[in-house]
Specification:
Number of strands: 8
Largest sheet: 8 strands, mixed
Bound molecules: adenosine-5'-triphosphate, magnesium ion
CATH class: Alpha Beta
Radius of gyration: 18 Å
Shape: globular
Number of helices: 9
Number of domains: 1
CATH topology: Rossmann fold
CATH superfamily: P-loop containing nucleotide triphosphate hydrolases
Distance between the termini: 15 Å
Length: 266
């Protein structure tokens, strides 16, 4: 199963993606986390040491040249492979977090920000499109904020899109646009994760103002005061107790996701 975590900047995509991956892996699933943010940082949330620097695949010029036949920045006018070989990249480049959890740092695949990095985009796109899972495997992709991930066909072939939003009209309106884009790309399972919720009833009320009844399911993850404390110390979500709010809510979310995985659209 391939899960995309999308949403506006700062809503909690990385936090949700990390808590979900830790939860699913501790429930026995093999999880591959793909960090597709231009400022990759999910490693810290997963508990990787602060000083551990991973070079994103999209910045690994020699790898890109080896696989596509061109270096990033060489741009148009040269030929490069749009279908580079990617099957061994997880084995070679994914970092082990624990026995069931691996992290692959892809980095930005956003051409608009760095000029024409076409060979890097070809490699990132091939990787996202051609990663498939076996029965006990789940891929969780933490994406760049906003709609970019829905461009260039990067979000195709996901089984589930989790659009994270704060319980505000502004954040939910953006979430609605992202869910619509996901649906246009034939992602049939979509859930809006209302995150950092303090007042549950108020959050549901705001959600119902923006989304029509039955348009998309929502899921509530409450505000967890442990999380800002962790971030000050540069620690990962693995260092807070399993009975804390974030784990309580995200494990309920993971149960819902497993149902989608086993029985399709709910
Ligand atoms: N449920 C929560 N309870 C408390 N704080 C939270 C929660 N979820 C996220 N946060 C806080 O919100 C901030 C943004 O979270 P995060 O980095 O996960 O967002 P993001 O959507 O990945 O951001 P970006 O768009 O920059 O990638 C962080 O400081 C994080 O600690
Ligand atoms: Mg993030």
């Amino acid at each position: 199963m391939k899960i995309l975590v999308s949403g506006k900047g700062g809503v909690g995509k990385t936090t949700i993606a990390a808590a979900l991956s830790l939860t699913l892996s501790s429930n026995g699933y093999r999880v591959l986390v793909v960090d597709a943010d231009s400022v990759p940082n999910i490693g810290q949330s997963l508990g990787l040491a602060k000083h551990e620097e991973i070079i994103p695949i999209s910045k690994n010029e020699s790898l890109i040249e080896e696989r596509t036949g061109a270096r990033p920045g060489e741009g148009w006018g040269i030929f490069f492979s749009l279908t580079p070989q990617v099957d061994d990249l997880v084995d070679k480049y994914a970092v082990k977090i624990n026995d069931k959890l691996r992290l692959l740092v892809l980095g930005s695949i956003d051409a608009s920000k760095e000029g024409c990095l076409c060979p890097a985009i070809a490699l990132g796109k091939a990787l996202l499109l051609r990663l498939f899972t076996r029965k006990d495997e789940i891929i969780v992709v933490d994406s760049e904020a906003g709609a970019e991930v829905f461009g260039r066909g990067l979000a195709e072939r996901f089984d589930l899109n989790l659009t994270v939003a704060e319980p505000t009209v502004k954040s939910l309106k953006i979430a609605k646009k992202l869910v619509d884009l996901a649906k246009e790309l034939n992602v049939v399972n979509n859930i809006v994760v209302l995150n950092k919720v303090v007042k549950v009833r108020e959050a549901i009320h705001v959600f119902n103002e923006v989304f029509k009844e039955g348009e998309v399911p929502y899921f509530i993850v409450r505000y967890d005061p442990n999380i800002p404390t962790l971030e000050v110390k540069g620690l990962g979500l693995d260092s807070i107790p399993k009975n804390s709010i974030i784990y309580e809510d995200v494990s309920a979310l993971s149960k819902k996701i497993i149902k989608y995985k086993n029985y399709g659209k709910q």
